[in-house]
Amino acid sequence: MALVDCNNFYVSCERVFRPDLINTPVVALSNNDGCVISRSNEAKALGIKMGQPWFEAKELEREHGVLALSSNYALYADMSNRVMSILSQFTPTQEVYSIDESFLDLSGIHNLRSVSYKIKETVGKWTGIPVCVGIGPTKTLAKLANQVAKKHPRSKGVFNFNSLSEEQKNSLLSKIEVSQVWGVGRRLTSRLAQYNIHSVQDLKLADTPTLRAEFGVVMEKTQRELRELPCIDMTLIEPPKKQIVCSRSFGEMITDVNALKDAVSLFVSNACQKLRAQKSHASIIQVFLCTNRFRAELAQYNPCISVPLPQPTNDTVHVNRWADFLVEKMFKPGYSYKKAGVMLSEIAPTTHRQMDMWEQPHEREHASNVKLMDALDQLNTRYGRGTVTVSTQGTYLDRLNVGAGQNWKMKQTRKSPNYTTNWSDVPYA
Amino acid sequence: MLDLCEWRMPAGFPSPATDHTQKRIDLNEHLIRNKEATFLFRVKGESMSGIGIYQDDMLVVDRSLDPKHNDIVIAVLNNEFTVKRLYKRGGVVKLIAENNLYPPLLIKNEEELTVWGVVTYNLHKLH
C-alpha cells in the first residue's frame, strides 16, 4: 500500500504559476483570509503554525517578506484532479483520501522503489506539484512512511517501510511520537500518555484488551495496522484535515446513472446535515465512484472529481446540484458500480462568512433556504435519515449557474488568478 | 482541461434529438495529447512574431514532453515566463527569439534554465 501526499499542496499550486515565489516564504489563507491553511517550507521555518490566524503572523509579512495568498479553490481543485488522474494511471485501485492525498494499492509490483520514484517524477513533471510517497504493509504504516519521506531529505521523497529489517522497524517506530499516527489526535495523545504510551512502538506493543476497553475499537484497529495486519477502511478514521466524508458500498452493484445519483444525493444530504449541525460550511466538493475491485474479471473504473463550490455553503440543495452534475459528468455506462461517496472539504464556521453588497438579494433567498434546511433536519432527525431529501430537479438551477468570474463572494483580497479554469486568467508568457 | 472551462450546470429538458446525434469533431482531442499535463498560456510581446506567434495568441503547452533542440518552449527566465525557441547543440544552450529585434539569450549553465513546458500548438485568432 502506498500513500502519495502532495507537499504543501495549496502553496505548491500557487508556485506552479508564480516561479518568482519558489524560494519565498508563502502561506495560503482560509476563507475570508482568516487562518493559515498551507505553508511553504520557508514559512514553516519562520515558525508560522498551521491554523494560525493571519493577523497574528502579519508582522512576519513586513519583517521577512512572507507572502500570504487567499485560497484559490478553483485552482487547487483543478490541480488536484490532474494529480489524482495521473496517480490512477499507476494502479487500478486508488482511494483518493483528500484533495492532496491518495492511497494506491501497489501489491504485485516488484520494483516498488523505482515505481515510487517514477510516480513522484511523473506528477512533478506533468503538473509541477512535488509529492512524497510512503510505502507500508498497511494504510497506517504507509501514512507514517510518507511522513518519514517528507521529513528526511535523504529519502528524496520516497520511503519504503517494507524494506526495513525487523530491528530497523522497531527502532524507527520508537523514535516517532504516537501523535503522528493516523487518527490519533492531540486529545488521544495525552490520554495515551497516561498509559505510558508515548511512541508509535509503545502503541504497537500495548496490551490489546486494555487498549480496546479504554480507547475503543478504532484504536485497536490502529494497533493491528501497526502490527502489519491491514484492517482499516478509510472512512472509519476522521481525517486530520477538516472534511466530511459520506460514502458507502452498495448492497448490489449499480449500473444505472439515476440510481447512482439517488445514492450520492443521500450522501450529500447526510454530509450537509453534519455540516449544519456543526454550524459550518464547505468550499470544495469531491465526488467519487468505484467499481468492485474484488471482481477482477469486471472492467474497473474509479473516477473522482473535485470542484470548488461557487461560495461556501451547507445547503443541501446547492451541494446536491453539484454532486448530481458531477455524477453525470463521470458516469460511464457499461460498468458496475459498487461504491460511491461525497467528500466536503475546506470547512469553516458559518459565522466567518462575510457577504459583500452584491450578495443582498441572494441573501434573502439564502435565508429562506436556511429555514427549509432547518425543517429538513428536524424531519430527518425525527423520522430517520433520508425521510426527506431534496429532489435533483428544481428551481434553483439557474441561480447556481454562475460564471467563474462571479466567485468573489468571499473576502479574498489576495487571490491568485484562476490560471487553469478561466479563459481570462490564463498566464502570460 | 479545456473541458473544465466549458462546464455548465444542466438546465431544462434534454433535446429529444440527443439520441440521434453523432459525436462531433472535438478540438480537445486534436489539441491535447495529455490532458493532465496540458496548460494554456497567452502570448505577451512580439519576440516570436517571425514564426507567426503574436501578442495575445493562445499557446497549448504540454509539460510531459521532454524539451528538445528546436522546440518552442515556455521557459522561466528571471522568475518570469517567456516563450522562445530552445537551442541545444554541442553543449550550447540558447533561448532564441524569432524576431531580429530580440538577441538570443545564451544560457551559461544548463541547470540555470527551467523549461516549464513544451508548446505544441498556437491558437491565433483570425476573426
Describe it for me?
The complex is a heterodimer of chains A (429) and B (127). Chain A has 429 residues and is α+β, with helices and mostly antiparallel strands. Chain A is built from 15 helices and 13 strands. In chain A, strands 5-6-1-7-8 form a 5-stranded mixed sheet. In chain A, β7, α6 and β8 form a beta-alpha-beta unit. The two termini of chain A are 41 Å apart. Chain B has one domain: Umud Fragment, subunit A (Ribbon), CATH 2.10.109. Chain B has 2 helices and 7 strands, in the order ααβββββββ. Chain B has a 7-stranded antiparallel sheet with strand order 1-2-7-3-4-5-6, with no helix packed on it. In chain B, β4 and β5 form a beta hairpin. Chain B starts with a helix and ends with a strand. The interface between A and B is medium-sized, with 31 and 30 residues.
Keywords:
heterodimer; A: 429 residues; alpha+beta; DNA polymerase, domain 1; Dna Ligase, domain 1; 2 domains; five-stranded mixed β-sheet; five-stranded antiparallel β-sheet; 18% strand; globular; B: 127 residues; mainly beta; Umud Fragment, subunit A; seven-stranded antiparallel β-sheet; 7% helix
The CATH homologous superfamily of chain B is named: Umud Fragment, subunit A
Rounded to an integer in angstroms, the radius of gyration calculated over CA atoms of chain B is 19 Å
Report Rg of chain A.
Answer: 22 Å
Strands of chain A, total number: 13
Approximately how much helix is present in the residues of chain A? Answer: 40-55%
Short description:
The complex is a heterodimer of chains A (429) and B (127). By secondary structure, chain A is an alpha+beta fold.
Question: What is the topology?
Answer:
The complex is a heterodimer of chains A (429) and B (127).
Chain A: E1 2-6, H1 9-16, E2 26-29, E3 36-39, H2 41-45, H3 54-64, E4 67-70, H4 73-88, E5 94-98, E6 101-104, H5 112-127, E7 131-135, H6 139-151, E8 158-160, H7 166-175, H8 186-194, H9 200-205, H10 208-215, H11 217-226, E9 243-254, H12 257-277, E10 280-291, E11 304-313, H13 316-330, E12 337-345, E13 348-349, H14 360-383, H15 397-400
Parallel strand pairs in A: 2-4, 7-8
Antiparallel strand pairs in A: 1-6, 1-7, 2-3, 5-6, 9-12, 10-11, 10-12, 10-13
Chain B: H1 2-5, H2 27-31, E1 38-42, E2 58-62, E3 72-77, E4 80-89, E5 92-96, E6 105-107, E7 114-123
Antiparallel strand pairs in B: 1-2, 2-7, 3-4, 3-7, 4-5, 5-6
